[in-house]
Amino acid sequence: MICDNITAKDGILHFAGQNTVELAKKYGTPLYLLDEDKIREKCRIYKNAFKKYFGDNAKPLYASKANCFKRIYEIMREENMGIDVVSSGEIYVALKAGYDLSNAYFHSNNKTDEDIAYAMENGIGCFVADNIEEVKAVEAEAARRGITQRLSLRLTPGIDPHTYEAIATGKVDSKFGTPIETGQADEIVEFTLKQEHILLEGYHCHVGSQVFGEDIFERAAEVMLEFSAKMRDKLGFTAKTIDLGGGYGVRYVEEDPEFDIEEKVGQVAEAVKAACAKFGLEVPEIHMEPGRSIVADAGMTLYTAGTVKIIPGYKNYVSVDGGMPDNPRFALYGSSYTCLPANKMDEKRDFECSVVGRCCESGDIIQEHVMMPSSIGRYDIIAVCTTGAYNYSMASNYNKLPRPPIVMLRGGNEDYVAVKRETLEDMARNDV
Ligand SMILES: *Cc1c(COP(=O)(O)O)cnc(C)c1O
At CA 370, angle to CA 367 and CA 371, rounded to 5? Predict the structure, then answer.
């Protein structure tokens, strides 16, 4: 199986040690499951690897846009993880969970004045300014409040991670960050250092997502440290922190490689140390912001199958009771997923089909070229693996489908609701 929390017993799919068919019966479908133990395990792998290779100062931050709801911020608080937030909405939910915002970094490429004020009001630790406009806006709000605000700068190191175009963010022409190559990064550093109410902390970059690749993070580290040395020489400013972003890949299908987080952190640390030696820098405080790799394989979605459509000589479809509203990733990026017949794990899978959603939209596909048992049909349970990242957080109510609940699993036998299923009433909640 693609992750060690997925097993089959007596023909039934188990997730985090629990019977998925029973869970589907108990909570209904569509249903998001999240393996709490797996999330905590991943946090600890990151934390321990950071401590081992970078020392006590370095820290991993959970990029909470990957999956954002109250309970997950409580878990991050308990695991002592820093967080990334990208909107007032995420800040609000984190506060609801009692998360101490001084450990939060505020990203996004277009923070409104209201976002900036709300974040400062609630004691955000650090802004990550995307561009000079944001530096100006943060300075203005900090001046109004008479405070000194920590801030770091998002730069684009000019690296193409060769993943999907839509999730490559480190190239010069990206909508994110201020490019190093064009000289604009020099200008923004010089400008920021002149601001009276901003304490410039360091630099940030994020090259993309679902990156397995070779030496992307190592190259980013070298570019960022070279830039840091250049600013030291030119402006007398040495970055205290360097954030190398998120983006570590996870396995969605058997063909995806295994990604060893600890080993990778070790390799990046070597590159950081080598670059520091080369440019005569002390090793700065290193941050990274994993999102997907913390939550993706902690997630699974359960659906009930409905219509099976066989178009002889063309194509076969198995429809499920959810679709792009709860998982838009195939529609957005053509993402791969592993689909399993949860109540028929022992049957031979010799029926090729597309697993599709129930929306009025032909792009509403969960996955194509899926192998299912030929007996698959109405009332069977179909599981989609690795849905813990960018599913719930991207979910919509398209076709007025209520969003599924999130049920958390832990200890091999406990299950509890962390987010309730939306009701039909919710579908008209804001209508006046
Ligand atoms: C989305 C994002 C992340 C997390 O990326 P993953 O691929 O989920 O690890 C980290 N940092 C920034 C700035 C992001 O936008």
Answer: 165
Cβ neighbour number for residue 363 with a 10 Å cutoff: 13
Would you call 360 a catalytic residue per the annotation? yes
Mutate to test the pocket of ligand 1, among 206, 216, 261, 394 (most ligand atoms within 8 A of CB): 206
Same domain assignment for residues 158 and 123: yes
Distance of CA 202 to the CA centre of its chain: 23
Kind of pairing between the strands at 299-311 and 381-385: antiparallel
**22 and 48 housed in the same domain:** no
Please give the helix or strand (H or E) that residue 149 lies within, else none. strand 149-156
User: Is the C-beta atom of 289 inside 6 A of ligand 1?
Assistant: yes
Question: pLDDT, tens digit, for every residue of 340-369?
Answer: 999 999 999 999 999 999 999 999 999 999
Domain presence at residue 1: no
Buried/exposed 185-216: b ≥16 CB within 10 Å, e otherwise: bbebbebbeebebbebbbbbbbbbbbbbbeeb
> CA-based Rg of the chain, rounded to a whole angstrom?
23
On whether the CB atoms of residues 35 and 75 are closer than 8 A, the answer is no
Beta carbons of 239 and 231 less than 8 angstroms apart: yes
d(CA 43, CA 294): 7
Residues 165 and 305 in one domain: no
Closest to 208 (Cα-Cα) out of 89, 87, 90, 292: 292
Q: In total, how many domains does the chain have?
A: 2
| CA-angle at 401, arms to 367 and 337, nearest 5° | 15
Q: Give 125-173 pLDDT, tens digit per residue.
A: 999 999 999 999 999 999 999 999 999 999 999 876 665 555 566 677 7
Write down the H helix ranges in 122-256.
132-145, 184-193, 216-235
Residue 190 lies in a domain: yes
Domain that holds residue 212: 36-293
Give the phi and the psi of residue 48 in degrees, each rounded to 5.
-65, -40
**pLDDT for 208-237, tens place per residue?**
888 886 688 899 999 999 999 999 999 999
Ligand 1 pocket check for 130: Cβ under 6 Å: no
Dig out the tokens for 180 from the structure: 């190093």
Bridge partners, residue 142, by sequence? none
Q: Is the CB of 209 under 6 A from ligand 1?
A: yes
Q: Do 274 and 206 share a structural domain?
A: yes
- Indicate the SS3 state at residue 134: helix
- Is residue 111 domain-resident? yes
CA-nearest residue for atom 3, ligand 1, is 246
Shared domain check, 44 and 29:
no
